[in-house]
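REQUEST
  id: r-88c1
  op: predict_structure
  target: Cell division protein FtsL
  payload:
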Amino acid sequence: MRAILYILTSLAVIGLAFWAYRENYATQQALGEADKLHQNIRAAHSRLAVLKAEWAYQNRPERLRDLAEINFERLGLLPLHPDQFGMVDQVAYPPAPLLPITDPVDVSSAAAKEDPL
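RESPONSE
  id: r-88c1
  status: 200
  body:
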């Protein structure tokens, strides 16, 4: 009886060791993938920082003003002034669309039947 118990215990230990071995490699693989994702995120942040710097450089007001002056004949761009803007109540909104009549009721004949005058 002891021999069967020793064999079952040994098989359980071997099975647990095999399971732990597989879990260790699965964990190492997941950690490697997480590291790659972190590297990709850092690279994307670096690219984004460069793009933001380029955008700020390209959108300098003096550069845009010079470009507008150079291309004035083609574009006709003029500087904006506060008096060019209007108030919200000055905006002409389109009228609301009329709702469709789905079930018309003949009111003239119904009123004639009800009115005893």
